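A quick aside before the break. I want you to see a complete sequence-to-structure record at least once, exactly as it would be stored in a machine-readable document. Don't worry about memorizing anything.
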Amino acid sequence: MTEIIRKVSKSFVQELAFGIPIEESINKGMKYLEVDVPNILSWKAILFSPLQQIIHHRVFVFSEGKDMLVGFIVNQQATFLPDFVSALIQLFGGINVIDDTTNLIFIQEFIYHCILFFMGLCSAKLIISLWLIFNPYTMPWFILLTATEWFMDSLTGVFPAFFGIEIGSSILLTLLGLLATYLKNLVLTMPYLPSEAIKESIGIHQVYTFTGIPKLWKLFDVPEKVREEWYNSTPYVIENLIKYYGNEGVEFIPSRLLKQIYQHDIPTTYINNIEIPSNLLDSVSHNFTFQNFFSLLNI
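That is the input. The structure line, written in tokens, reads:
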């Protein structure tokens, strides 16, 4: 399972090539958008869409610069969660950085394929209802009727019928299709909120760019597990963040190490070859409060 997640992570989250112009890297990375969708050539494919792997939108992480391994770029075809949902997942779900989101891809794909399968059942029920030779209350049609009637007939009487045809079911199928498209294009934006996206043009590509210190980090600080992972695996990320954002009042060093520095009253020190300037030691940890959470979401 872990190996599968790693493979998905490599295809879903890609690090921009080091030392290569960003436009060239983006042009190469965006080639996934050119993948042809197979044509539907049979009535079976119309009723039941073939289960195809979702072509997830790539997340291109910066490999250098002030937002190295924190900021990223996605295509503007991507869809996002509402801000408050993204904030809840980060604060209470433990999904704090973009690499963590790869674990949710399997859930996303499962829900997406379930919607496609249910749409196929609804389409079959709709077609059968137009043929008088089928009695929907006999087996096996009754199973199909039971599985879909609660959904297909939920708008009966709400919209008028045209030429004797109830359009409520067609509207519901359209809405279900829009939901499937939304899920297919969904990209999680941790550690940023979706509203922090900046629209930009890079060459011929229209993209969203996520850069700077995320709002959640400014209000609630960097999650402890993220700081520990940086310190143990990629200390140069901490050094880079201190270099560019050391005056933002955000703690990038694990709390246990900061506590040691405070106790020894050391104004400037090195930890794991990372220089910690004295002004960083003056930063104050932020505690979670619902007041901060609601103010973040403008509620």
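Two observations worth writing down. The chain has two domains: 1-212, 217-296. The CA atoms of residues 20 and 88 lie 36 Å apart. We'll return to this after the break.
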